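hey so u asked for the seq, here:
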Amino acid sequence: MKKNVAIIGYGGQGAWHANQIIKSDVVALSGVYDIKPERIELARSRGIFTYPSAEELLSDKNVDIVVITTPNDSHKELSIKALNAGKNVICEKPVMLNTSDLAEVIKVSNQTGKLFTAHQNRRYDVDFLAIKQLIQEGKLGDVVSVESRVHGSRGIPSDWRGKKEYGGGMLYDWGVHLIDQITQLLPNEELKKVFCTAQHTTNFEVDDGFKLTLIYKSGITAFVEVGTLNYIAMPRFYLQCKRGSAKINDWKQNAEVAYCKYWNEKEVLPVQTAAGITKTMAPRDEITLDTYNLDIPVSDVHDFYRNFVLAIDGKEKQYVTHEQSMFVLKIIEKAFESIEKCQAVDFD
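ran it, structure tokens below
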């Protein structure tokens, strides 16, 4: 039997969830609530039942799961209310604004026996899954570094995402996704230091871009960048390993992979550069290097809902755990500390 879901917040992401639920094989849409009358009218025009208040939504005994898609600063209060009302909760990212708030919500989740999770849907992005596949296969050897970027050119959104009081800014918006992906790519690595710089080119209240470096005790580095004033985007992913490299230009393209079959060449011919010659940067030939495109992995983002339903029934562990959400939030807290101090900070 399908689980019944109600949504608090019918903006862009709330409508996305509603569309997913309507087409679902494991959940059914009970209705939505939003504080804005125009969004209520929009939902009704689409044939969706609307609740007159959040309280009436939470008091509906038929609702099994509540999805929270409101501005970031309201996540804590609504999550606690929903858990105490006996509902399982899916909260949009960032799941909370700091680790202490998340700890409070986890405590309520444990006390009520209801599941609470963050909606990390970017774990289903095919570009991320391609890089994850390459790392897990191990053909390219040990990881040296991972670079992850998202670039746009329209500035920070002009809604609440540009306001500090609502938890706006790109670290909380796209950063939480990309950091979560990095932690999934390097799950067994121990983080040592965090260094971050923020940009304020179109918004001086919150960061409209950032550059984050994660330094692991093994020597691996991860670089995460979000930019909202980049008219030429850099590659979405760049993976450097000891026996090869991979690049994905954007989420619509295959991964370009280069695998080093043999380290040494009999003779390296120098190449002419703009003002001289070099052997060090001479390109490899096909004898030592194999290049190919990796097929785009198969992905279904609705597996998130399927897992959560099975987790409610005790048949699977929830995909996005409390520990993972806490780890990502701690990295973001350290990133803000690094920005404030203008230096790298210890993670421990």
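The chain is about 30% helix and 25% strand. The two ends are 45 Å apart (CA to CA).
lmk if thats what u needed
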